[in-house]
Design a protein that fits this description.
The chain is of the alpha+beta class. It has one domain (7-180). It is 53% helix and 14% strand. The strands form 2 sheets. A 3-stranded mixed sheet has the order 1-3-2. Strands 4-5 form a two-stranded antiparallel ribbon. Helix 7 (154-161) crosses helix 8.
Length: 187
């Protein structure tokens, strides 16, 4: 699947606009929960709603089956996260769910895991939410600044932005920032 024409550029513009609205310093990680509040969503850890053993059992049945879900209750969105996730993974999951909300995706597909129904979006909308959410966490301008400061190690980028190593690698590979740095380096 491919993203619609202009999608990545719009995601970059939106990410910078949200950082500006939240007064996020240029190289600071975005406060993803403050961003959720900005778009009328509240983040809740799942163990506040059900016993944590339910999450442990689901994880045992299928690793990674549940990361986060969004519910609309009385005109407010609630993003429920997996309490077993690391902080960087939780931030990524929230950003993904915010991608769905900001892009106004509709829930449509029902899947079942061990008899428990889950609603999800269409595959192309999942791809869009992943791309959009990752851009919210690591906009190209932030990556470019880090790379031009000599920080190209994905582990260091992940640590500085409070994202997972996988997220840092994903954005380095999809943003084209390393190619820009290479093209501007003296031969």
């Amino acid at each position: 699947m491919t993203l619609p024409r202009g999608f990545k550029a719009q995601a970059e513009r939106d990410a910078l606009e949200f950082r500006q609205k939240l007064a996020t310093p240029h190289l600071a990680p975005i406060d993803i929960e403050a961003l959720a509040e900005l778009v009328n969503a509240q983040v809740i850890s799942g163990e506040k709603l059900v016993d944590i053993t339910r999450f442990q059992e689901l994880e045992r049945v299928q690793v990674g089956a549940f990361s986060a879900a969004t519910f609309l209750i009385d005109d407010k969105h609630f993003i429920v996260t997996n309490p077993l996730s690391s902080e960087p993974r939780r931030r990524s999951d929230i950003a993904h769910e915010l991608g769905h909300l900001i892009l106004k995706h509709e829930l449509g597909e029902i899947r079942q895991v061990e008899g428990v129904p889950f609603r999800s979006c269409k595959p192309d909308e999942e791809e869009q939410a992943t791309a959009y959410g990752s851009t919210l966490l690591l906009p190209s301008q932030v990556l470019k600044s880090l790379v031009f400061k000599g920080i190209t190690d994905p582990a260091k980028i992940a640590q500085s932005q409070n994202v997972s190593l996988e997220m840092a690698r994903f954005r380095l590979n999809t943003s084209g920032v390393l190619n820009i740095k290479k093209s501007r380096s003296p031969a």
